[in-house]
Amino acid sequence: MASNWAGRSLFSLIGAVSLWGSLASAEETSGPETRSDASAGGDASSPPSPGSDQKSEGARAQGPKVELPRLLEFVPAAYPEAAQAQALEGDVPLELTIETDGSVSEARVKSPQGSGFDEAATEAGLKLKFSPATVDGTPRRVKIAFLFPFRLETRPPEAAAEPDSHGVAPVERESAGTVGDLGGRILISGPDTPMPGINVVVLDALGQSYSIRTDGEGRFRFQGLTPGQYTIQIEVAGFQSLNSSEEVTRDELTELTYRLAPLAAENEIVVQGERPARELTKRTLTRREIERIPGTGGDALRSIQSLPGVARPPGLAGLLIVRGSSPQDSAYFIDGTAVPLIYHFGGLSSVVPTELLDRIDFYPGNFSTRYGRAMGGIVDAGLRAPNTECTGPYGAATDKKGCFHGMAQVDLIDMRLMLQGPIAKNWTFALAGRRSYIDTWLKPVLEGTGASVTSAPVYYDYQMIVDYRPNPGEKLSLRFYGSDDRFETIITTPSANQPGFGGNLRFGTGFTRAQILYQKELTERLSLDAQLSVGTDSINFGLGGNLKFTLDSIPIYFRSEFGYQILNTLRANVGLDFSAAAFDVFVRAPPPDGPGNSGGPFGTRPSRESQSSALGFRPGWYGDLEWQPNRRLRFVPGMRVDYATDSNSVDVSPRLNARYALFLPEDAGPFGARKTTLKAGIGRYMQPPQFQETSDAFGTPGVKSNSAHHYSLGLEQQITEQIDLTVEGFYKDMQNLVTQAPSGTGSVYSNQGTGQVLGLETWLKYRADDRFFGWVAYTLSESLRTDCPTCTTHPFQYDQTHNLIVLGSYRLGRGWEFGARFRVVSGALATPTSSTTPIPAIFAGDVGSYVALPGQAYSERMPLFHQLDLRIDKRWQFKSFRLNAYLDVQNVYNNPALESYVYNFDYSQKAYQTGLPILPSLGLRGDF
Amino acid sequence: MSRALRVLPFVSLTLWAFVACGPELSPVSKIDTLRILALRKSAPYATPGEVVDLELLWEGAKPDEVERFFGFWCVNPPGNLYGQCLTNVPTVPPSVAFNQDKFSIQIPEDIIREPAPGSGEAAYGTAFVFYAVCRGHLTFNGRPIDPDAGQGGLAGSGQGGVAGSSSGGTPAGTGGNGPGPIVGLPDCVDDEGEPVGSAGLVIGYSQIFAYDGYKNENPIIDGFEINGTKVAVDCLNSECIGKPYEPSDARGCTPDLPCFSTCASTINTDCEANHLRPLVDRASAERDLVALDTFGTDIGESLWVSYFTDQGSFNGELRLINDATTGWIEDYKTDYYAPKEPGPVALWAVVRDNRGGVSFARVRGYAEASDE
Lengths: 928, 372
Description:
The complex is a heterodimer. By secondary structure, chain A is mainly β. Chain A contains seven helices and 53 strands. Chain A has a 22-stranded antiparallel barrel. The longest helix of chain A has 15 residues, at 4-18. Residues 1-64, 158-176, 264-276 and 593-601 of chain A have low confidence and may be disordered. The N and C termini of chain B lie far apart (64 Å). Chain B contains three helices and 23 strands. The longest helix of chain B is centred in the first third of the chain and has 14 residues, at 7-20. In chain B, strands 14, 15, 17, 19, 20, 22 and 23 form a seven-stranded mixed sheet that branches. Chain B has a five-stranded mixed sheet with strand order 2-11-7-4-5, with no helix packed on it. In chain B, strands 13-12-16-21-18 form a five-stranded antiparallel sheet, with no helix packed on it. In chain B, strand 12 (221-226) and strand 13 (229-231) form a beta hairpin. Chain B has two domains: 35-210, no CATH class; 221-368, no CATH class. Chains A and B meet through strand 29, strand 30, strand 31, strand 32 and strand 33 of A and helix 1, strand 1, helix 2, strand 11 and helix 3 of B.
């Protein structure tokens, strides 16, 4: 019986190869063959067993070392004579089953092309020879996708004769001494086995191209070429493209040997493909998708904003708005440890660089009891295990063990470096750092506006990982990471409407975390996943003398989870999720306004101050059962209990998720042998009040936790091998929301708010293959809030009725890739000025500015938002490193996104505040 | 605990956006409609029982075109929110005045309220006054105001707490009945009975803090400086009250009339920049003893100047003079660009502190055609 670690590795393997659409499933030695699913879909059809992957998702993400299959012997497919006679070309995608000895036992045509191509490709596919896929050195049987291209030869016009047995295209020489030959051999890098039957293309200086196929020894030769510069292009599915410039000399044969590197080495995945058993809905993105989604600058966490259920944040706000919930209702984790921020200043980039991420788990709702203290969504990013795999020239596999890798990237916003490699036996490390240099160009801009800039915006982050893996079933990981953002300026020309917004404006935020992760298979049925982290959070915000906020805290997190396989159909998980923080906080600010009233600009009331030091505890206990009575059905009931000392409240959160496989691949479903899965979830989610809401000075001690009930019902349909459709409806019923209390009640806050969110998410996704990935995501939703029992219900501030995202990226060949993202989103909401008063604003004589008389809250919507982002990448593969350049252009047609209203001094005139204009970003990245 | 703080970066950028960008809208510094520039109190921080004199500086119309209204009927509204004064019955016996530019109120003896236990605040009370200027005829709920009704009279309006000078009130400091829409604002109509809107109606409010022992003085303006030279001031503080600016018949610069070169270009930087500022005494930046005694924080007042003109424009309408934490800012002058057409111009400087103090000055000038 295989260990759980081995089970996890299969999922890693599945996810890894499915990135290029090649590895579609894996098979346990003792179990039935199962189909993987790299998207949100899962499979309720696999009964959990001690050997299968039914463990905690945190443990699952840390799989052992996986070696992907590599092509050792290439066999060309014979060009069907009839097709050749009709000048037909085609690409035949195959699904190959690779045995543990590397042989191909089955070749199945995934998309028939006809004209004899399918038979030829199948015959050739069965003759291919690979190195076997391995998990910690143990060979595994896997399935991969493989593409056989059929391209006609285009020989030089002079080469009328057939090539000889050595792939030579003879040319009747115009005259001796005026032409030269170009020839050589194509080999697979690593084993140096020849590549017969592949197309070799040469282009002359005028752009005229000729092509011939290599012979059985992988040889080719163009004869009778006019001396000069030629470009040789070779593209073979599954290999690095080759694009080389060569010189043809008169009366000489220019002979070359090219080694094509298999692509498998670069195709790691960031987000693991399989949905954890306990979670109802999980959105996943592959590394390629993350790095290539236009408009995100290749930033992993910003790519989440292209998923269904996530609203578009306002212009420069680095906010995550999930299923109609407030940004503070969602929680962010790095490997299970809560962090206060995931985006740097203005949402420009994430606090963890993409290169260091192993996975991102994004749960938009109905998440399991593993997560608590949040009623929105969950983002849990996992740091990667250091990569010490060795590769030879052009990325070819080698037998060498323990190698170093590095990366350097620079773009217009920041620069980053990463180094990883071995330390000693079983010990590995990774170091990474990033610093922005916005300050170099923004400081002059700010100074141009009259601001006296003390410290222009700058951010940096850093990560250090040391992993110890003594055996496949045990892992210890030590991490230290942090982030820092700073900005300081003196505003000497405050806005006329907000004279209090003047003086010394400073903002700084930072956090550090020292984290220990430990995972171990205690027995065949019992596993442990534990972690401890200690760090610092610091926030410093001030403006003139009226506003000041400083927070210094030492958060401590401890989480331990035991998983026990009770029966083959039943698994139990229990855990402790403990959070504590010692903090010092100082606040100086005017007290908040009452509902329906605006108390005037800052400066009209004296500021209050509060300084406190305290130690807060928030322990939580949780447990759930994974019960899978048969291959089609899975139930995950769970319960979570939280306590918070700051609000002195005990929160009980029962939850239930269920999945039912309506059709399995062996059934005759509506789309043939494809899965159809129904899923549903219901649960209670509690969130303690924010600090300021229970503060003696600014809040109301005694307010209790917010609560929300999540309901969801969905369908996951596999339409083709590459296309998945997910449709999910959700409803959130929020109660006891902490809102500002009605004036005159003696309280600042109360638990009188309610809210409802109703929505439907549709995600049609083409999973990444070797050429293309893309999706259409559409979310229809309505999010409402009622601040008190007698208050009028109004739309939520960030409510977006429609949110449509269409994106795709296509590999053009020769290292080029082109992508586009188009978004159409309902306009932002605004609160208009009163239409029932004689004037829209009243003059505040003490500060000399006007205070708007507000109308119905969020009752006006800005015009529709739409934006096109484009991205183009070019990659060069050199012998020992790769170079990638990209141009990412946001808002290509410079559509003025209308974010809000701006008013003149007395609110008698208004205009639109526009968002970001066209914003190109140019970057360069090198890897070795 | 710190999740709510995720919005802070957004707040910071928004603050910056307030300063840095935005589409072109009518500037606050241009006086081309009826405007209230300030309400000056003889005692920004008053003591219980003290009589506080209020002076209303308004501009943009002639005195005989404008109806004025003063009212005082609210003390210690819930949450110290002005809106509570308008949505609830009065908390003091109301007193009103019409077509006067000066008004006096007596701070109730019992205005000071004990702070909430544990808040650390000094005991204080607040009083609100409301006022309006109307280029037309003031009305309440569609009914005209009878200026001859004198203090406390609104002809047959029945407006709670306003119709009678001493009725309908509840004891000071009892709070209100809860939130609701803002009502009770006067309107302004023209001779045809049509509302004049923001161009002809300004409604304002001011707040007076009452402490036992703490005082705050209005800023001190010692003069006015243009391009480094002290110039004659047309009026200062009380001298300006009831005397809105009217252009003179001057046809050119005189020794007493500062001269500016007209600016033909639509781009200010192509024209002559005139550096001007009021001469503010550094003693104006007082220590905030309330903050010091209550919180132990030794900070000063925030002090800033707002610039206005009837012709021309500024490159900065508002300048900070003193930051509460970093102190005095020497360079608080602004650049003034004269209008395209020659003629008389007026410049105003209104200096405020963040504790209700205000002073102002008016300067006359003349924009003369440039030689170019």
